[in-house]
Amino acid sequence: MRNLEVGMSRRGFIGGTLTAAVGSLSGHLVEARAPASGGQSPMPALSLDSLKPTGALDEAYWWKVRSQFNIMDGFTFMNNGTLGPMPRVVFEANERCMREIMEDPSNGSRAEDVDKVREKVAGFVGATSDEIALTRSTTEGMNIFAHGLDWKAGDEVIFCTHEHGGGIGPYTTLNKRLGVNIVHVEIPSPPRSIDQIVGIYEKAITPRTKVIMVSHITYVTGLVTPVKELGELAHRKGLLISVDGAHPVGMLDLDLKTMGVDHYAAAGQKWLLCGTGTGVCYVKRDVQDRIWPLMGPPGDPKRGARKYEAFGQRDVPDVLGMTAALDLQLAVGKKQIEARDRELSTRFRNGLKNIPGVKVWTSNDPSLSAALTLFTVRDIPMANVQKAIMNRDRIFVRTMGTGNLNGCRAATHLYNMPEEVDRLLDSIKYVSENASRYTSTVG
Q1: Of residues 97 and 15, which shows the higher confidence score?
Q2: 193-197: long-range contacts (C-beta < 8 A, 24 or more apart)?
Q3: What is the CATH number of domain 333-443?
Q4: pLDDT tens column, 390-408
Q5: Which of 99, 244, 319, 351 could be joined to 425 by an S-S link, Cβ 3.0–4.6 Å?
Q6: What is the pLDDT of residue 443?
Q7: CATH class of 91-329
Q8: Is the pLDDT of residue 339 over 90?
């Protein structure tokens, strides 16, 4: 069992010059096996202007971005698909807002400021502000749509077997409560093409189908579902399409209008890096009169998607902190972040191909994959693989078991570095080569 310190410290990184810090790491990984230090020294966030690219997006630039996160030294975090680490600029914005409200609670709701966040979110995802509700999670957004529609017994909803519980949950309730039928479709892992996926959904449609519910990126294998094409299919058949968008916002350069979906629920705590208790729910203006609020009164149509926010008190500092998260993403650039996330995940998947005994369940086709990768190592239980990688190299990945899948999922985001991807590949190779050691227990 061993620990690895790679020299990922922001203490030395920010304390010295950027060039010196990057130069000291460019040749090779530091092989000192030592425990992580347990955290970072408190340091102020860099200005957003200083994070705007002024030249080539080389590793020196991405080290600068990395410096804005308080991830422990010697620890590689690759589970952004569950919870992304909050960058300093967001943490400081939240802290500042909380302090202001505690000093003067007379305007604790900050309604005007919340509306400014709504406007910024709308521009970020390609919507209008009256189509955006600021929620507390993707799950809440999925419930707003599912429970907001008028259903009758025998109506059908179609979704695949790799949907998240947050999206499935409301339809399970509707099935038991109102007799709404759930139609499952099975998507291969990985699928052959966009046409194959669309064809599978089309075959499942019947005269009773009301909604297609689909994850834009499935949390299981990281499949990027062809949402635009499925939306066109749904509308051609007179159906609505509801999208679980827990992962793409903050990872992909999105434009919801171009995608043509009726509903899109997203998370703030994942790739947008806003912290927990934040979410976005897009409801197309044209369908809002068909979707009742989940809580509170029917709502004034003139208020648009704000009618879906009648849930009482909200965590105002977290919501206002979303502005800092969006500003950080815009400073780096949405297209640049997507390219970086894809570059790292492609590096990872290409490396997995060369490790005997490893199976990759995620497509390497860029139209069907992005920054999440699911892999298995021989017949080793996924929990043992996860623990072995963590014990050996202090790399955290998530386990994932659904149906016939028994694997681990790695996420790559803008704070990850190529060296970390290579270390993970080296760790997986070691586990595969020593499979007998990990089949039943992890030492």
Answers
A1: 97
A2: 194/226, 194/229, 194/367, 194/368, 197/225, 197/226, 197/229, 197/230
A3: 3.90.1150.10
A4: 999 999 999 998 877 889 9
A5: 351
A6: 52
A7: alpha beta
A8: yes
Per residue in 361-372, pLDDT tens? Answer: 999 999 999 999
Query: SS in 3 state form for the chain?
Result: CCCCCCCCCHHHHHHCCHHHHHHHHHCCCCCCCCCCCCCCCCCCCCCHHHHCCCCCCCHHHHHHHHCCCCCCCCCEECCCCCCCCCCHHHHHHHHHHHHHHHHCHHHCCCHHHHHHHHHHHHHHHCCCHHHEEEECCHHHHHHHHHHHCCCCCCCEEEEECCCCHHHHHHHHHHHHHHCCEEEEECCCCCCCCHHHHHHHHHHHCCCCEEEEEEECECCCCCCECCHHHHHHHHHHCCCEEEEEECCCECCECCCHHHHCCCEEEEECCCCCCCCCCCEEEEECHHHHHHCCCCCCCCCCHHHHHHHHHCCCCCCHHHHHHHHHHHHHHHHHCHHHHHHHHHHHHHHHHHHHCCCCCEEECCCCCCCCCCCEEEEEECCCCHHHHHHHHHHHHCEECEEEEECCEEEEEEECCCCCCHHHHHHHHHHHHHHHHCHHHHCCCCC
Q: Domain ranges in the chain?
A: 1-74, 91-329, 333-443
